[in-house]
Structure formats: structure tokens, C-alpha cells
Fold these 2 entries.
Entry 1:
Amino acid sequence: MSASKPPCILVVDDDLDLLAFLAKMLARKGGYEAVTARCAEEALDKAQAEPPAAVLTDIKMPGMGGLAFLQRIRTLDPAVTTVLMTGHGTIEMAVQALKDGAYDFVEKPFDNERILRALDRAVERTRLMRENARLQDRLSGQEHDHGFVGRSRRLQQTLELLRRVARSNVTVLIRGESGTGKELAAKALHRLSSRASRPMVTVNCPALPEHILESELFGYRKGAFTGADRDKTGLFAEADGSTILLDEIADIPVSVQTKLLRVLQEKEVQPLGQNRTFGVDVRVIASTNQDLEAKIRRGEFREDLFYRLKVMTVTMPNLAAIASDIPLLAQHFLDRYSREYGREPLECSTEALQSLMQHSWPGNVRELQNTINRGVLLCDQGVIEPADLWEEMEKPPALGAAMDLPDDIAAASLARLSYQQAKNALLHRFNAAYLSQALRASGGNVTAAARDCGMERQAFQRLLRRHNIDSRTYRDG
Ligand SMILES: Nc1ncnc2c1ncn2[C@@H]1O[C@H](COP(=O)(O)OP(=O)(O)OP(=O)(O)O)[C@@H](O)[C@H]1O
Ligand SMILES: [Mg+2]
């Protein structure tokens, strides 16, 4: 943060007049920037958007009260310092709050000087706590251990959020389009956490059929079902003391969702065929590129599980949102692949870089990475040219020639159609061929096909409907 920006105080109270008064007073007399919130929920959102230097909160509020809020904000950001405002009859609560980690309290009616002094100390304490955490990170060599490349503001904000939530134990939901670095983010969360010394357990949810997913996650006792000829430890037990990543969580069946909810609520696991449960200490990270809200509406995803998961949501930016990082990312992948293939260091020509900047990247960083990989393989000099990056196919095809036109719109008859009709006819045919080919390659698996095409599953499915294509006809057997 720049030195000129005044420290930000998050002020929480359900009394609007008081909020306005405090904001003005803190700005005028304390030189602070006040961010106000009318309830704890709003305050948590705002603290997530920008970490405050200190929090000044009422202790008695409708909805989530001051004590619960204190706990939540401390999980979110262990370094932030909280000062409570107490009214008549809340002294006992204030004492409890001090035990729970509040730093100080001020009594209503206020003495402005007293508030300012308390906040000055609180801000200083937060600064020291953050500095200390940074030093510890550096000492353990984790400063750049997140694996992300890029200096854009949007990416840096995301990394800052990852760093902050890493230290807590909250469940994190990582959202984002395909190829935006969701798995990389999960690894970073684990590596930056106090659990880093133990390996993270990753579960690729859609890869496992329903009954296997359940027994893999929770384990089973010998004899629990036919074929269970010995006890099996589940992945949750394996991840005890560490982190579990439930990758592509949107695809897990509702029965497994129900069991999962129990684990998140009770922190207990019950293996199949066993009556007793046992406790586990596992930090859960879930990722998805799907529209969970739509799945909830269709009854395919449990709403209560969704709310459990999304307490802390990290949304990975798509490549368009961090387009200024494309040159840096391209160079990063160039270095990586030229090293991997034992080549001299390579660089991009200006034209190649321009073409990279102009591309729309539906497959995000992963697509960029693959494009550079191919470029390094194809390039026979020290400089990558556009021709090394793009296949012929990706250039606009010569009308008719590349399209293998059907009789109804054979090249000769194209001219007789209006421009719009000709375009629609070609587009329809292209879409149908493209979608069928993708489904054939994935054996009728819509999620996999969408991913291979660099598309959101929902968008892919919309296209299927529009072109009257039934994915089931592509399933094996
Ligand atoms: N900012 C970045 N810097 C360097 N590498 C990145 C960055 N973002 C993503 N990557 C790389 O891009 C590739 C795709 O990332 P990742 O697998 O984490 O994406 P994802 O969102 O999980 O994709 P999918 O939805 O397809 O599973 C990985 O090789 C990852 O290391
Ligand atoms: Mg992934």
C-alpha cells in the first residue's frame, strides 16, 4: 500500500447517524479513511474487498452480534485489530470479547479523544502483526511460492486475497473459467498455510463414479459392501492435519454432497459400514468453473452445501481481465519450454506478441501456455513468429474450400443467398460439426467436451440444445 493513502478504519454500527458522525470525526480529527457498514455481514464483505487497518464495531447489533463478528473477522484476517463500542449493560460482553481477542473497547457516550487514541494503537498493532507475518513468510522462503506470474492489478489483488485466507482455516471456494489457474490457486493456498509441511490431497471429483467417490472420500470397513475385503482409509482421513482439494465439485452427486456437508459441519467422518464417526482436522478447498447457482435451481446441488463452501470465495480472473500480463506470461512459458526442450533462450517477435495480445483466449492461461508450447516446438530460429503460434486452421478459411460445404449451400449457390443467410448456414454447419466432434472425442461427456473446447459447460449445453444435438448418442456402447 502506498504511504500517502490514509489507513482505513472499518466502522460497523446499525445506527446510521452514529456511523456518519464517526466517519466524519475519524477523517477530520484522525486523518483516517472510514469505511462504514450497517451490519456484520456487510462489514465482512467490505473487509474481504479491502483489508482494513483496524475495525471499530458496535457490540450489540441485529443479526450477527459483535462477538460472532469478532470471531469471523479474526478467521478472515488474523492480523486485523478490533476495538469495540459498548453501550449501557454490555460491559460483560466486552470482557468476554477481550478474552476472545478484541484489543480494546470504548464506552458510549463517546469521548472522541479516547476513540482516536484506541484506534491509533490498534492501527499500529495491525501494522506490526502484518509485518511480522510477512517476515515469517520470507523466512520460510514462501514469499514467491505461489507459482503465479503477472503484475496486473487484478491478479495481484487475487494473490493478496489468497495470501490472507491462506493463514486461516476457512473453507475456500475457488471459482473461475476453465484454465484460469484454479488448481494453481489451491496449491498456493496450501503452500502458504501452516499445513504446508504435509502433502495436499487432491480429488478430481468428476473422474470418479458415484459409489467409488463416496468410498474414496470417506473410506470403508471390511465387509461394508461386496468386494470390500479389507478396511480402507478415506481421503479425508489421509488429509488429516493437511488440506483437501475437491476439484470440480459441481459434478459430485447429491448423496455425496449430503455426506460432505456433514464433514464440513461436524468435522467428523463416517466410513461406509461403520457406525461410529471420527474427528478430522482438514482444511477444505473446493473449485468449480460451473454455474453453481443454476445447478441449485435445477436441484442438482445442495443450497446449504453451497453456502457452507462459499463463505470465502476467490474468483480467478480470466485472461482478458489480466491481458496486460500476457507478455510476461508468454515470456515465462517461453523460458520454461525452451529450458524443457534444451533450447537456447527464445523470444517473441513484435508481430507474434501483437497476435497474442489480439487473440481472445477462451481457454485462458492454459490455452496461452499450450500455444507457446507449440510455438517453441515449431520455431526453428531464436525468435517466435506468428506462423509458429497459429495453425493454418485458426486463420480464416477460404470460403467454401476449407468448409467442405454440403450440397444445399455449395460454393456456387452461396452467392445466391443473402450475406446473412450464407453466414448463418455456414455457422450452423460449423457449430454442428464442431460440437459433434468434441462430443465424440469425450465419449459423450459434456463437461469434458466443454472443457476441451475452452467453454463453460452451460454455454456448451446451450449450443447443443440450439443445434438439436443429444450428447447421449455419443456415449460409448
Ligand atoms: N498467472 C499464472 N502464472 C503462471 N502460470 C499460470 C497462471 N495461471 C495459470 N497458470 C498455469 O495455467 C495452467 C492452468 O491452470 P490450472 O490447471 O490451475 O487452471 P484451472 O482453472 O484449474 O483449469 P481447469 O478449469 O481447466 O481445470 C497450469 O499449468 C497453471 O500452472
Ligand atoms: Mg482445474
Entry 2:
Amino acid sequence: MKELHTGANYWNTFTTGDTEWPTLRESLRTKVLIIGGGMSGLLTAFKLHEQNIECVLVEGKEISEGSSLASTGLLQYCSDLMLHELRKMIGRQKADLFYRSCFRAIDEVRRIASLLQQEVGDCQLQSRSSMQYCSDLKDIDKLQKEYEALSSLDLPCELWDQHIIVQHFPFSKRLALVTHQDAEINQHLFVIRLAQYLSQRGIKLFEHSKASSIRQHNNGAFSVLINDQYTIEAEYIVHAVGYHSEQLQLTELNVKSNRSYVVVTEPIADLSSWYNGMLLWETARPYLYARTTPDSRVIIGGLDETSSKLDRDKPSINRHIDRLLAKLNELFPSFHAAAYQSWNAYFYEPQDGLPYIGLDPSNSKHVYILGYGGNGTIYSMLGAMLAVPIVLGNANTAEHELLSMLSLSRLSR
Ligand SMILES: Cc1cc2nc3c(=O)[nH]c(=O)nc-3n(C[C@H](O)[C@H](O)[C@H](O)COP(=O)(O)OP(=O)(O)OC[C@H]3O[C@@H](n4cnc5c(N)ncnc54)[C@H](O)[C@@H]3O)c2cc1C
């Protein structure tokens, strides 16, 4: 299995109690087998368990070692593709349903984080507002249109003009779209807490247990070979394998393969010029994104490049770190920020901006949760929420519509 990120990862510095799970040592049977122990897999296990649907999860490496460890933990209801653009692309009704669903998905993450906090421990979720500032004067119109589109759905947002921006931040931009009820999270801790919570409730989670061949019997049930040794029999398979798309037997994913760079700074002595710890991003594509942390650091990411390889070249990595720090110090000159840790990671961008969630068009027992795109965590949540009605066979009209919009039939096989 390919490596999904490289470098020194800040999230690994958090110790969290039990963080190891057994390797599968026997064959077994279950209703739903979830393949993949990242955000998508664990959230799906959580949602299935809540509905008393039996499931087993296998992870080929370690839980939360994939892209979930590389995330910067910004949870925003706005996608990379703006609502007014999405309306043009897929029609108003569908676009509105998608945006409303993303908004609901953040609330669901918030609810789950609060439950985990009571039951197993904190995952540093903090509600935040976001500010998307215009990187270029030509984007002013875009932000205004987006404000109107979001407001038409009563999604919580404001437009800030230059005057308001300089009252809140040490930098000046012509216009910004501020959205409320977003959040930041320690995504790694969240995934680990989910695993701790589920295993305390008897859900079987296995690490170092790689699913290889999948065989379907005449009665529709599957036999999945794990570590070439044991078999798990299941009625449904949820593929939550993230960017390990090479094993999905889907010949071509309509995605752009990028790599993205992240820097976590040394603690900043005085973060007070960063208004209310807002999540920052911009209208440029690819965009810069930044947030603060509970231990007074800044996480800044971006400089995405089209590449299907991780960057392992020290001088190149250093150049990217310097560029990210220069951008941060340009926005906040008093910070004099220095790098603490940094990594770069694979990042898939779907060509039409939407994740791939739902059934294999040719096999209604294969469920895919491929939350590709900048809002990956929200898409993982959305996928987990949709997995329940898929397995129970009781999707309502809105869920049917979402599933058809996000369907894998967009893929060429
Ligand atoms: C640099 C960067 C920054 C990001 N920042 C944000 C952000 O701020 N906000 C946001 O919402 N999203 C962000 N994302 C996206 C987010 O990280 C991902 O969308 C999310 O973590 C994907 O979770 P996942 O569970 O689908 O994949 P993963 O976390 O990669 O989990 C998939 C797992 O499946 C396992 N697996 C694969 N094949 C098998 C097999 N055959 N058998 C067993 N196990 C298998 C893998 O080992 C892996 O652990 C960011 C991504 C990157 C790269």
C-alpha cells in the first residue's frame, strides 16, 4: 500500500491512551465489513453501531495512519466549489441539497465529538467562523454571488468589506465571505476516540489486517480474504480506503492527483491579532488555508501541485516551507513564525468537485465512501450518514437524490 504522506506530523505528538488494536487471527462473519480505518471507516462504524447494525472494520496499517493523519482539521460547510457555481453545474435543487447536507454533516460531527468527549475523551473540536477573503479583485463578484446564494438558504454568513476586515485583522483585503458554525478539530484524536469508543462497545476493529481478494457467492454474500490467511464473510462491503484507489477495480477515477504542503509553526507568543481563531482561506485556486491550535500554533497549508508523487526532496520541501511561512508572515507580520513540523501529502481533487459516495452501479452490496476534495471530513460524515439507509434499504427522497448526485456512475469503468 502506497504511503499517503511524508514528513513530521504534529498530530502524532498527542498521546491518547489505548491506540493499538489487534490483528485478525480467525475467520468470522458479519453483516457489514468496513475496509479502511480512517475518518470515513470509523464514522461509518459509528453510525452503523448506533443503528444496531453489526459491522467489523479492518485496517491494513494502523487506525488513523492514512490521509486522516495528514488533515489540517478545518471543518467548513462551504466546499471548494461555490454554491452558485454548483447550481450552474448540477441545477439549483441538487446543489442546495448538497450544501444543506454538508451543513448538517458538521453538526453531526459536533454531536459525535461531544459524545466522545463525555465517554472517552476530548478531540479538540472548537466551533469557529471561517473567512474566505478575495485573493484578487476579480473575485469580488464571486464572493458577492456566493453570499447571496448562501443567504437564500439561510446558511449563516456575512460579507465583510475592507473596513471591517482591517478592524479584525492586521491585513487588508477588499472583501471576504464569513461563514459561521464551522469548526476546527484534531482529526487524528477524533478518529482514535471513535475507535476507543467503538471497541469499548464490543465493535471489532482490526489493524494490520489488509483486505485482498473479494469473492461474491451465488447468494450475494462476500468472502473477503484478510492478510491472505483468514476470511470475513459479509453481506455488504463498505470501501472506505481513501486515496488507495488503485485497489478499487474502478479503471479510471475522474480526479486530479495533487500533493499539498502543511506547516505547523512553533508557538506564537501573541495570537490576539487573529480574530476569534477564525479559519482562513481564500478565493484563489489552489488556495492557502490556515488555522490556529489550542497550543498557540498556526497550521498553514496549500501550494498544491499536480503530482502523483510525494515530495521527498529536502531542498524542495524547505522551499515550500519558506513560501508558506512567508505568506503567513505577510498576513501577520508580528508573528515572525518559524516552522515546528511539516508534511506533504496526496490529495485527490474530483474534476466535478463532488465526492464519490454510494453504491457500485453494478453491485448494490458494494458501498463506496470516497470523500475526495478539500472538505474530506465533511464528506466522510456525509458518507457515513448515507451508509445507514443503504444497508437498511430505507433511504428517503433526499437521501436517494444525494446518492444519485454523488453516484459512482460518474466514473468510467
Ligand atoms: C494535506 C491535507 C490536508 C487536509 N485538510 C483537510 C481539512 O482541513 N479538512 C477536511 O475536511 N479535510 C481535509 N483533508 C482531507 C481529509 O484528510 C481526508 O478526506 C480524510 O482524512 C479521508 O479519510 P478516509 O478515511 O477516507 O481516508 P484515510 O484516512 O486515508 O483512511 C483510509 C484507510 O484505508 C486503509 N486501507 C486501504 N486499503 C485497505 C485494504 N485493502 N485493507 C485494509 N485497509 C485498507 C488505509 O490504510 C487507510 O488507513 C486534508 C487532506 C490532506 C492530504
